[in-house]
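Hey, I was hoping to borrow your eyes for a little while. There's a protein on my desk that I can't quite get my head around. The fold is given in discrete form, as structure tokens running alongside the sequence. I'd be grateful if you could look everything over and explain what you see. Here's the protein in full, and shout if anything looks odd to you:
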Amino acid sequence: MGDKHHRRRRMDAATMSKSNWFRLSSFQIFDLMFNQRNNHKLTCLFTIVLILTCQCLADDGYEMDDFLKREHSLTKPYQGVGSSSSSHWDLMGNAIITTEHVRLTPDLQSRQGAVWSRIPCYLRDWELQVHFKIHGQGKKNLNGDGMALWYTKERMQTGPVFGNMNLFTGLGVFLDTYPNENNNHERVFPYVSGMVGNGTLAYEHDRDGQSTELGGCTALMRNIPHDTFLLIRYTKNRLTIQIDVDGKQQWRDCLDLPGVRLPQGYFFGASSVTGDLSDNHDLISMKLYQLTVERPQEEEEEEELTVPSVDNFEQLNKVEVQEEGMSGVQLFFTIVFSIIGIFVLGVVAVVMYGRWKENSRKRFY
């Protein structure tokens, strides 16, 4: 009787243990499922935040692709530069490759160098980020001449425009470090500016390209201890140039102009030239990104451009000429000749008065 009672208690205890084990297992399972559900919620929340962040970082309705266009980019270790058939870039003139940069010109007089892409670019909307360095032994205003970035129909040409040809077709962005027109009071050098050429428009070197400038800004970018960058963005027929030369890792607006029309199929490049004054002009990288832009149907069906142009360019040029005041030399000579004229008139007046007085005496006697 007692054995049966003990066996029944052991069986009840075993049953209770199994029940507790099932309850514990169920609790663990539900807890695991709850944690997994939380993890899933956290993952979804993180994904939503990431998407919203990316959308907030996107500017003017465009966003960059996950990868840059390597065939149009120039980066270390510069394996795609040279004379081999597999190269994407050509060197020209005195340009050389080092482990750290492509040196367009050294700090020596009368040097010219350039690097040009071999592959034409057929992107409709793009952004070019340029890492560069301009430095040398010359003191302020005793250095020159600067460098230029290009998106043009022509390539591998030499000439007076920062080492490239004049009468170019396409876009030129000039990083000018020396003022050729010493009488200019409106600009402070170094100066960044942009120009769109149509094959017949000439860059005036002696006037630092003022008559054809689309806009620009002062950029203290020479002999800077930190990295210096420039950004060129072309999207929806709008040209934007920004600089980062203050070491703050922030883009600063330099030029923003709508109505700029650039054909596809042009070449990217960079060039530099030195004369009696010189500097090291180093190109560290050029990275081209394709921009994804939503366009209305009518914009998609626009005719293909063949000649670069800028809307209302004549009015832009006219306004600039009107705002241009009298130069310092002109003002100086105007004052000098005015003083001389006044002095001569005074002398003539004194002589005439003396003669009139003398004639008066003779009539009196």
